[in-house]
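Researcher: Good morning. I'm working through a list of sequences from a screen, and I'd like to move beyond sequence-only analysis. For each chain I'm collecting a predicted structure so we can compare shapes side by side. This is the next one on the list. No need for commentary yet; just the structure.
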Amino acid sequence: MMITHPRPNRPLTRTLALAAATLTMVLEKAPTHAQLPYEFEIVAQEGDTVGGLAVSGISAARINDIGEVAFSGVAPGSVSAVWSTSSVLLAEGQDIGGGVILPDFRPVTFDFNNAGVAAVSSSGFGGDGVFTSTGTAITPGTTIDGATISGNFDVNVALSNNGDLVFIADVETAPGVFTTT
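Model: Good morning. Structure tokens for this chain:
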């Protein structure tokens, strides 16, 4: 198992202590004859700045089928955000296109596909809706298949590698499941 640390400016003793603690935990759980099948590295941690926005309060991570990582958290100032390892994909207050400003959202409610697109849902956090990093916005009042969405977006959203979006929201007071056609 190889543990690397991308920032050489961190004290070596801290890095070695973390590596020793991690290795100890792994060895306690693995049989002595087991060969660990993975090598790990830190791709981001609290205190890093990615895409100009400081990483703080990491709450969820996703990996797509081609190995790209995205993670969510709360940046300084209580700004909900989703980052890739190299950029900010979505952040509260961001204009995602067409003048739609991304509201606050639950950082754990995101999905991430092979095209590097992120999607989030928001309900009761200053703006109900489903939003993507490509500019899709579905908010109360949107009519889909003859039904008007009234709000109460569920906390989960799914985004396929084809760009299909699935979410749950109320339709004129009754819940419905929506997907692209």
